[in-house]
Design goal:
91 residues, mainly alpha, 4 helices, globular, binds iron/sulfur cluster, iron, disulfide bond, transcription regulation, DNA-binding
């Protein structure tokens, strides 16, 4: 029996419009051991990019549904995503 797989392009297509496309990913993902002021500064920088991003909604939805464990996606940190998932489970 032959199985057919659907193209997955639509799953990733939103990334073509991403404001962070081509940027250094270190703005969005923390280096090992990063804390305090350095972390807040990097997260603020990433949020500023996400704030002007035309695909922040699909980005945020993707990160939530795929439970991305690290980084800023759609302007949200991993801690914020974990809190959102826990809140949804309680409701
Ligand atoms: S919302 Fe932020 S992380 Fe997501 S694609 Fe846009 S700029 Fe990149």
């Amino acid at each position: 029996m032959k199985t057919r797989t659907k193209p997955l392009l639509h799953v990733w297509e939103w990334q073509l419009e991403a404001a962070c496309r081509g940027m250094d990913s270190s703005v969005f993902f923390p280096p090992a051991g990063e804390r305090g002021r350095a972390r807040r500064r990097r997260e603020d920088e990433a949020r500023a990019v996400c704030g002007s991003c035309p695909v922040s909604e699909p980005c945020s939805r993707f990160a939530l549904t795929s439970q991305q464990p690290y980084g800023i996606w759609g302007g949200h940190t991993e801690t914020e995503r974990r809190s959102a998932v826990q809140k949804m489970r309680r409701e």
